[in-house]
Structure formats: structure tokens, C-alpha cells
Structure prediction request, 255 residues.
Amino acid sequence: MKTAAEVCPQCAGTGWKTVPGPEHGVTRCDCQLRARSGAMISAARIPKRYEHCELSNFTADFPGADHSVALAQISATRFVQEFDPRDGKGLLLVGGIGTGKTHLAVGILKELIAARGSACLFCDYRELLKQIQNSYNDSVKATELQVLRPVFEAEVLLLDELGAVKPSEWVWDTVSLILNTRYNDNRTTIITTNFADEPAASAVRSLSPARAAAREETLGDRIGERMRSRLHEMCRIVKMDGPDFRQKFKSASFG
Prediction:
């Protein structure tokens, strides 16, 4: 039973408030919208580390960032403003470690939940693959389909750190299944990756074996050229350059 202090003064606990004007209608009270938004935030499974992340506090967390990072924040804000679930077009945030990709992506999820009531889901790429692999164990009750169903069906999926797992045929097949399913269902996917959006070594004919071995791995190397091409159909590419802010602040704290 709610105490008097807990009862919303606008709706007196009914969940509905009167709409001012000649029609004297009613609408859902703000307290209900806030409660629904809070429940949807919980359902989005945003990790504790990123619970504070908002589009509004991005600049405070990444002061003096590279110009491309500032442009990425503008792109994220515009994405929310222009979001149309029927469009299915997502974002691929590309940049080094600590440039703020996940902060921006989580900020987008929160804005879409609050402003649009969109059903969103956060998935760490490495954790997701572990859960799928664990589902093959007879002692685990969850099946592969049970693990993947919310990933397939989320209106907006955030797939964080794509490419972070060493590639194998199974990894490539799993990535293909997730991305192709969401692409075919026209669902919006937001992706972050630390790997440059460049072709796989095998796709660059002019690259000698020695240079191929010496170069840094790219997104094409980690997920395969076919899926990289699919991402270009599914997402707008947003590049974020600059230093690792986590290391920068860590070094400053010991200075």
C-alpha cells in the first residue's frame, strides 16, 4: 500500500490526468510514463558501468575530444531526432579504445526509450557469443534460440565491440545469422567496433604476404568481407578518432 507521500499529486494514484481544454479528456500521467521508461531501461540490460551514459553528459566525460568525436555526438543526436523504426537504418560507430563509442550508443538507446518508447537491448558481443556457446551444454537450460530470440526481435539492438572475438567459421556464421536476420526483418542495429572499417587482407590484391602479416587487423579481417558489406547496407558509418580517454584520465590521476 502506498503512503500519501508516494501517491502522485497529478493523478492521485489513478495513472491518468485531465487534459486541460474544452474537451475535458484524460491522458496517461507523467508518473506512468516515467515508470514505463524505467522498466524499459531495465529491460534494455545496460551494464552498470554505462548506466550514467547520456547524450547530454557526453561532452563532460570526453572534454577536448577530437573534432570527429564532436561530430559523432551531433550524428547521434540527429539519429534520435530522425529515428524511424520503419527505416531500419542503424549506426556503425568506429574508433579506437576509449573514444566514447559505447557512451554515445547507450545515450542513443536511452533517448529512444524515453522519447519514442522503443524497445531496446544492449548486447556485449563477447558475452553474447559465450552465452550461445554455453547453450550447447546439456546442463544449461537455455537453448540457442532462447538466447538469440531477444537479439533478433529487439526494435533497436546495440551490439557492442563487434569483432572483439578471434574469428572462426563458427563466429562468422553466428555474426551472419544475427546481422542477416535483423537486416531481413528491417530492424535497427547500432554497432560499436575498435577495428578500422577497412577490407580484409585477403580482399586487398596489392598487399604482399609480409605487409599483410604486419598490418593491424581490420573489421573485414574480424567479421569477413561479406558481413562488412552487409553492415554498410544496414548502418551509417560514424568514425571517432582521438586518444584513449580512459588511459588519459588514468595517467592524469597519477600525475
Observations:
- DSSP finds eleven helices and seven strands in the chain.
- The beta strands are 16-18, 26-28, 90-95, 120-124, 156-160, 188-193, 235-240.
- Residues 249-255 have pLDDT under 50 and may be disordered.
- Residues 131 and 147 are 7 Å apart (CA to CA).
